[in-house]
Specification:
two-stranded antiparallel ribbon; binds zinc ion; 1 helix; 74 residues; alpha+beta; single chain
Length: 74
């Protein structure tokens, strides 16, 4: 199997779009996962979005906790 861009032996597949990747095609790796140049940016955004969601959830949980603490104090 060869990559469509360089006609070289593929050594991995993009974990985002499933495209065959040769050594030159791989733009980003995450452990054993590889991503093409088109998807590496999206993966970064995706990861950032997960982190933002987590931060937001943590903040909400903290607010709830404070609200409960306020009730118990009364
Ligand atoms: Zn891709
Ligand atoms: Zn290639």
């Amino acid at each position: 199997m060869k990559c469509s861009k360089h006609q070289k032996q593929s050594i991995a597949t993009c974990q985002w779009c499933g495209k065959l990747l040769c050594r030159e095609c791989i733009a980003k790796t995450n452990g054993k996962k590889a991503y093409c140049t088109d998807c590496s940016g999206q993966v970064g955004e995706y990861v950032q979005r997960i982190q933002l969601d987590q931060i937001r959830k943590d903040a909400e949980a903290e607010q709830k906790k404070n609200r409960f603490a306020g009730i118990f104090q009364r």
